[in-house]
Amino acid sequence: MAGSTSEANGPVTLIRVFSCPESERERAIDAWKQAWEFLKHEPGCLSTELHGAISPDAKYQLINVAKWESMEAQTAAMMRMRAAHVFPKIEGLETSQAFYEVIFRE
Fold this sequence. Notes:
Helix content: 25-40%
Strand order of the largest sheet: 2-3-1-4
Low-confidence stretches: 1-6
Number of helices: 2
Shape: globular
Number of domains: 1
Strand content: 25-35%
CATH topology: Alpha-Beta Plaits
Structural class: alpha+beta
Distance between the termini: 12 Å
Number of strands: 4
C-alpha cells in the first residue's frame, strides 16, 4: 500500500487518544467499554484494542486502536452512538482522533 493523504475507502485504523486526570481514568475506561458494547454491533466495525499507559506522566493515559471497514462506517456509527447518549461526560477528559492506513508491513 502506498502512503497517501487522500481519504481511504478500504479498511482503516482509527487511533483515538484520551487525556484525563488520573482520578477519572477508571471512569473513562468504563465509559469506553460502554461505547464498545454499542459500537461492536455497528456495521463496518472490525475490532478494537484499548491501551493504557504504564508511565504515570504519559501525555495520553489511554489509546484506542480500532479497525473499521471504512471511514464512513466509523463516522456513521459515532453519530448513532452520540444520538443514543452512550458515552457520559467526564470532567477533564479530552480526546483526539485520526484515521490511518498501513503504509509498510513486514
